[in-house]
Amino acid sequence: MTNTRAAELLTTWETGLAQAPSGRALLLHRAARPDTGGETLSALPVGEREADLFALRRALFGERMQVRLICSACGEDMEFDLDAGELARSTGAPSEPSVQVAEDGWEIEFRVPGVADLTAAARHPDPRRALLARCVVSAVRDGVDVPADALPETVQRRLAEEAQEADPGADVTLNVNCPECGAATRAELDIASYLWTELDAWARDVLLDVHLLATAYGWSEPEILALSPLRRRYYLELCADV
After folding, report:
1. Which Pfam families match (predicted)?
2. Across the beta sheet with 106-111, what order do the strands follow?
């Protein structure tokens, strides 16, 4: 990791400490696409953002992602690995920007939600209703236009299913069989949260290295960050031997 890249990531981490999870996800997405504006990033489909974050994770910390789950049946602690590169390739932009649903006399056109849609809906007391209000392009019942909040539960479920099929990368769900009892445990993989946890641990380790080397040698932070991780580790070992 170059000096500039390390310094930029430290700035991303520092800014994100005061942010909610949605703000941290946007910061990480900006790190993945530094030449793309924030408004453009917020307008992207969720699956495309997830692909970008998996690719960023691979670039920063490698292919192998260690995941831990608790078996929902017996409580066994399960550990397994995922491939960040494979997940980046399997997610991405949706197949269609919108879906059409015909159900029990209803005809609905629904825009596949983007990052900004989910962020705004999460702040609403009723996230599902807020998402429908933002993403339903048209709703017709027996030839008559109706508001999005009038959609029955069955139609709402059908819309959710169709949107998930159009943008499968928006919801990466793991289904893991327990090696002890054989029961399956389902869990959502939130790459933004996972990557932020890794970035937080990395940043704190780097700042400790900076503190120790600055104390021992009087070097500035940019000078220490300019060292490769291997050379930095050797200097730290020399400090420990004194």
Report:
1. T4_baseplate (PF12322)
2. 98-103, 106-111, 136-141, 144-145
Enter the tokens of residue 214: 């600055």
Which residues in 70-91 are b (16+ Cβ under 10 Å) and which e? Answer: ebeeeeeeeeeebebbebbeeb
- Residue 47: count of CB within 10 angstroms of its CB: 23
Model pLDDT, residue 53: 96
Global pTM? 0.88
pLDDT tens string 165-213 = 888 888 888 888 888 888 899 888 999 999 999 999 999 999 999 999 9
Rounded distance between C-alpha atoms, residue 16 and residue 25, angstroms: 9
- Answer whether residue 10 shows pLDDT above 60: yes
Distance separating alpha carbons of residues 235 and 83, to the nearest angstrom:
32
Q: SS3 of 185, please?
A: strand
Residue 67, classified by CB atoms within 10 Å of its CB into exposed (0-12), middle (13-18) or buried (19+), is middle
Distance of alpha carbon 122 from alpha carbon 133, whole angstroms: 13
Would residue 143 be called left, alpha or beta, if left means φ above 0 and alpha means ψ between -120 and 50 degrees? left
